[in-house]
Each structure stands twice: as C-alpha cells, then as structure tokens.
C-alpha cells in the first residue's frame, strides 16, 4: 500500500457512516454504553464479576469476529466493575492494560467474561479478565489491567 492510499484509508474510514450521523451530538459516556449494551451480570461478589453476552454485530470486524478493540474495552470496563465490587470508591486510572487474543468469537456467539481482582490495595489494583466461549469454555482472550486508585487529598 502506498503512503497516500494509507493516509486515505485512515482519514476516510467510515466516511459514509459519519456523514449520516452527527458524532459530536452523541451523549457523554456513549462509548461505555455502546460496548456494554447486552452484557448481563450472572454473578457478582466482592472482587469478582461474572458476565455473559451474545456478541452483537456492532462489535465485529470485517471478518465477522469480535473486534480486538471491543475485547480490550470489555477488559477495561468489566475489570473496573470488579474493582468497584471490592468497595473501592474509585476505579482509578490505568497504569497498564494488556490482552492476549487466543481465538475468535463471532457475531451471535454467546460468551462469558470473568473479571477477578488479583490485588486491591490502598493505591493500586490489579485485575484479570478472561473471555470464554459459553459453550465449550474455550478461552477467547485473557486480559490484565493495573490501575492507580486515585487517593483523595487529606488537606
């Protein structure tokens, strides 16, 4: 791909869709709702949140499999939910986040997302988030997210 074609690809991606919608008019927190719509909490306890969902067409890529960015967002958002389940007053800010992609989940496929707090201290929390196929249990992705829990000033 020549450089101009690459530039056009990046700058004009989804141009037809954008013309039909006013992206600046979308409400705040739209992204979380876009990712989480359809997620069901199956079990919740301190330090663990187990969810399931059917992969919706809006979260798939050109191969009809769940987009890696959607997977990363689920690790981020549902990992933060697990932190909140410990009684933390804040989900904090990301220090690092990583995901290992092991297989694909496709539109219409039922998946489970298991978020577990590995450590929740006064200033740092670490979570592990695993996505599995609901039928058969095959691991789709494993994520780890470390967060700095913002400490309020004592002044």
Give the SSE map.
Elements: H1 3-12, H2 15-20, H3 30-36, E1 40-45, E2 48-54, H4 68-84, E3 93-101, E4 110-120, E5 124-133, E6 139-148
Antiparallel strand pairs: 1-2, 2-4, 3-6, 4-5, 5-6
Task: List the main descriptive attributes of the protein structure presented here.
155 residues; alpha+beta; Thiol Ester Dehydrase, Chain A; 4 helices
Describe this structure in words.
The chain has 155 residues and is of the alpha+beta class. The chain has a single domain, classed as Thiol Ester Dehydrase, Chain A. The chain is 26% helix and 34% strand. It has helices at residues 3-12, 15-20, 30-36, 68-84; strands spanning 40-45, 48-54, 93-101, 110-120, 124-133, 139-148. Strands 1-2-4-5-6-3 form a 6-stranded antiparallel sheet, covered by helices on one side. A hairpin with a 2-residue loop joins strand 1 (40-45) and strand 2. The mean pLDDT is 91.
Shape: globular
* SS summary, helix count: 4
Please tell me the overall pLDDT. 91
What percentage of amino acids are in beta strands?
25-35%
Uncertain ranges: none
Organism: Spirodela intermedia (Intermediate duckweed)
Keywords: Acetylation, Cytoplasm, Cytoskeleton, Hydrolase, Lipid metabolism, Mitochondrion, Nucleus
InterPro entries: ACOT13 (IPR039298), HotDog_dom_sf (IPR029069), PAAI_dom (IPR003736), Thioestr_dom (IPR006683)
Subunit structure: Homotetramer. Interacts with PCTP.
